[in-house]
Amino acid sequence: MKPAVVGMIAAMAAAAPAGTAFATEKPVSIVLVHGAFVDASGWRPVYDLLSKKGYEVLIVQNPTITLDGDATATRQAIAQARHPVILVGHSYGGAVITEAGADPKVRSLVYLAAFAPDAGESVLQLASTPVPGAPPAPLLPPKDGFIQVDPAKFASAFAADVDPKVTHFMAASQVPWGLGAVGAKITAPAWKAKPSYYLLATQDLMIPPAAQRAMAVRAKATLVETPSSHAVMLSKPAYVADFIAMAADASK
């Protein structure tokens, strides 16, 4: 963790009082890429906060069937952006931005409790690597080419610090994750050529914090830790929005 970065986020939060009017549009666009088992609606709190800060915010609706399909959807959003792009990925969305982030419009990458695979690696490889002391994610066996989280364990594993009414609905409305996305290998990881920022969720039970830290260090990312479940964009939307804004300001 870098104290200067944490201090910058705290200062930004203090300087932006709640209820302020929308700011003049900033010369940076933010593209938000969701992960597995959920859809883009989970970005709503972060979207609202970033929009109020003056950013153009585009949200990718990943099919989560194949990595190639999700990377294509992300590149389409990047192409629509009016400004240079800060590309943000949560969870499996980290693999998507790693694959799609080489686009010349992308200035930097932001990983939120996310996978950051290297060339030739898949999310399956990373997720299957045991982490001492960390329980495996409660995934059900693949069925018809897709994977889901055990609905009975979804709330506690994915979003223990989020309103139970929200997490119970998330469990019931899961989007199946295609094996073509889980097992696809990264071709040219964008983090090798672009500045990267990583927000590590220390209470994550889907991607072990130790695995997150190893990926962040490997990517030479600016690393900040926060006590949160895997669903950090829902449990700490203001903190996440400030973290993304910090990355956007640093990219100017």
From TrEMBL:
Residues 1-23 form the signal peptide. One of its GO terms (molecular function) is hydrolase activity. InterPro entries: AB_hydrolase_1 (IPR000073), AB_hydrolase_fold (IPR029058), Sec-Metab_Biosynth_Hydrolase (IPR052897). Residues 30-242 form the AB hydrolase-1 domain. Keywords: Hydrolase, Signal. The keyword Signal applies. Gene3D superfamilies: alpha/beta hydrolase. This is Alpha/beta hydrolase. It comes from Caulobacter zeae.
